[in-house]
Specification:
4 strands, globular, 30% strand, four-stranded antiparallel beta sheet
Amino acid sequence: MSITCFIRYEIDPFQRQDFETYAENWGRIIPKCGGNLIGYFLPHEGTNNIAFGLVSFENLAAYEAYRNRLKTDEEGRQNFEFAQQKKFILKEERTFLENIPSTLNQHFQK
């Protein structure tokens, strides 16, 4: 069973560019440390202060191994410090989800 870590961020909408830089950095760091990055998402319309990140893992043990690698990764530490210094993340929540395989990657068909 795979799991997806669904991260909900409350961000400072006036520091949107800093959050985008932060997310782009994770685009290199997460795969290097063992996560399958689905993506980061910024608000487009409507609420302007909620962003999301989704990262999948084979199971919870794989997530724990990833977290341990992340703690010792220099680039990962620098990205966490960047967020703390700039204070563009006001709140962060994590939820772990399991997927329903038959619903994944369904596309419009003509």
